[in-house]
Amino acid sequence: MLIMVSLGRLDVVAQPSAESAAIPDTWRDSCTGHTILRLSCREGNNTSFYFHNNPFIRSLDGSGDVMLYYGSTEQGRQLFAVDLTTRKSTQLTVQSFPMKGEIVARKHREAIYQCGDTVFATNIDTRVGRVLYIFPDTTHGTITTLNADETLLAGTFNTGDAEQAIMKQYPLKSQFFRRIYEAHIPHSLFIIDLHTKILKVIHQENEWTNHVQFSPTDPNVLMYCHEGPWEKVDRIWVVDVRYGTTRLMHKRTMENEIAGHEFWSSDGTTIWFDLQMPKSENFFLAGVSLATGSGIRYRHQRSEWSIHYNAVPGDSVFCGDGADSAHVAHGTDASWIYLFRPEGGSLSSERLVDMKRHRYQLEPNVHFSPDGQWIIFRSNMFGPSNVFAVKR
Questions:
Q1: Peptide bond into 24 cis (omega under 30)
Q2: Ramachandran bin of 76, using left for φ above 0, alpha for ψ from -120 to 50, beta for the remaining angles
Q3: DSSP single-letter state for residue 299
Q4: What confidence tens digit (pLDDT) does each residue in 31-83 have?
């Protein structure tokens, strides 16, 4: 369970003013009335995991939950673990090289990440680290996901230096995104067997592959996307890692249709995604069954469109992180953390957090807490980025 909140035991303050220099540990949103907690109670910039990367693990004694996040230090960005009952953070890593990777191995109780060509695992309880894999000089791979039985890592690499050259010359996403797509650089999906330490390429094509996510329940099913302008790609795919067989999960049916920011349901039966038919006009949270290919769509309003969505187990409630007017929906009052409830073929929304002071260059990346009662997000509304939780 996340923090057991009793307002009589928490120092809940009113909504801080725009001029406030201090970041409160707890406050009540003046627009919504919902209680918000700061989880990253430390100095510097702190960021929660990307929306489809699960950051949670039970505490060692089973009495509560722990969440991993990244925080800035004098040695660079490091991994931290916060006890969601006490809100006490513990630094897990001390790496002198830049780190990337947001993987929690719950069975082995380890955080998995990458520094350069080396993949590490650090025990969340003892903070003892070990080397899992070292890429050969000829393969500049990046790991992004761990399968359900914790035997395989997966990721991507591209052939040659063309992609790196584009990103070096055009460092902003608005500059490099279409250029990499149009270059049709050969990309490979790979798996690493953690017992044999053997890397195996399971799929190759001249398309930009990204957003690699193992099923949370089936160790042989891997989801990936064709990256690029969403109106130009059939984006969402799965591959059976045993045989390399691929399957398109959603095919566009009209001009300028877009689908993306896909994520698994917690039971691995459904892939959920943002669907617009066409782009910037009609908005849906859509799902497709892995077993049957049948779909479901929940319509919602322009002002409710969110960059990312997430779901509780059972998919009975969803959340979204809103947006500003510069994003694809161009909503005029969309900067909120939302709770969504399906009602027939639509979503009814509840606003939880006023995000008007948040700068959306930092995407909030919403998660539900393990008990489903809190929505966790990151925000720079007070200047530095921090990790917060709002009560449903």
A1: no
A2: left
A3: E
A4: 999 999 999 999 999 999 999 999 999 999 999 999 999 999 999 999 999 99
Instruction: Find all residues with CB under 8 Å of 286, minimum gap 6, and list them.
Output: 250, 259, 272, 273, 274, 275, 295, 296, 297, 298
Positions of the chain with pLDDT lower than 50, given as ranges: 4-9
- Give the whole-angstrom CA distance, residue 82 versus residue 369: 13
pLDDT of residue 5: 44
Task: Give residue 97's region: left, alpha or beta (phi > 0; psi -120 to 50).
Answer: beta
d(CA 369, CA 67): 9
SS3 85: coil
The percent of residues in the chain predicted with pLDDT above 70, rounded, is 95
Residue 247 to residues 50, 146, 221, 229, 360, Cα–Cα distance (Å): 25, 20, 11, 20, 33
Query: Which domains, from first to last, does the chain contain?
Result: 23-45+265-392 (2.130.10.10)
- Ramachandran region, residue 316 (left: φ > 0; alpha: ψ -120 to 50; beta: rest): alpha
Question: Bridge-partner residues for 286, per DSSP?
Answer: 273, 297
Report the alpha-carbon distance of residue 355 to residue 333 in Å, rounded. Answer: 10
What angle, rounded to 10 degrees, do the helices at 162-169 and 173-183 form? 150
- The residue with tokens 């639509």 is 346
Residue 4: the pLDDT is 45
Q: DSSP character for 206? A: S
d(Cα 376, Cα 386) in Å, to the nearest integer? 11
Q: Return left, alpha or beta for 307; rule: phi > 0 is left, psi -120 to 50 is alpha, else beta.
A: alpha
* CA 160 to chain CA centroid, nearest Å: 28
CB atoms within 10 A of CB 27: 21
